[in-house]
Amino acid sequence: MKKIKILYEDKDILAIEKPSGILVHPVPEQVRNGAGPKGKTIIDIFKKKYPKIEIVHRLDRETSGVLLLAKNEKAHEFLKRQFQNREVKKIYAAIVNGFVKNDHGIINKPIGRSPKDFRRYSAGRGARGEMREAITQYKVLKRFVAPCVQNFSRFTLPRVRGGTYADKNFARTSPFTYLEIHPKTGRTHQIRVHLKFLNHPIACDSLYNPNGPCPKGLKRLALHARSIEFKDLKGKIIKIESPIPKIFQKLVH
Length: 253
Fold this sequence. Notes:
Elements: E1 6-9, E2 13-18, H1 30-33, H2 42-47, E3 54-55, E4 64-70, H3 73-84, E5 89-97, E6 104-108, E7 111-113, E8 121-122, E9 128-132, E10 135-149, E11 165-166, E12 172-183, H4 190-197, E13 214-215, E14 223-231, E15 237-241, H5 246-252
Parallel strand pairs: 4-14
Antiparallel strand pairs: 1-2, 2-4, 3-4, 5-12, 5-14, 6-10, 7-8, 7-9, 10-12, 10-13, 11-12, 14-15
């Protein structure tokens, strides 16, 4: 793995470009799921240089993009309050299955635990445990069709709205939508759960969309934390951006 890029740094705050495929911090299932280079997490990698470093927010293992870290306890509490008060502005980029009908919309649906899988969360009927408020705003940037890979059960595929189909040369293609996403709350797996609830799950999501078509060449979850805006300890507004992954750009050009 290449050296992790630092996007911003001052005496209190560090912002990095988290790669896809690495955990932010140690978890019980780390050995089974993998963490990163030599099993290290983001915290492991930066702990030596910054002994007091702390996690302010999280990105899922397969999600890439901007990640904020606090270099001391004062900064951790300061940034944490901004997240709790919903003062931090986050923008994500995602590729989802199917053509999203509306050009923009808001998903306002509480999230609880999945009744079928302890690893998953759910915004649908039957969700269990505490139902926590979750709000996600989205905007369509582009709708496109692309070659895809999938465990197809039949050689000739049915043509369905928003689904997968085969052209006259039996080239396996599928419709996708490129979205800009603004989460207004920060629940675990929120974007993945809400887009699944919308019936447009994120492409290549092995947990929430294991059987959905995945664009050819994309070998990771199609979700990227594009930017984050917050105040530093002096009250100055800071906006950090992470470039869209090249494979995303290639698919939606």
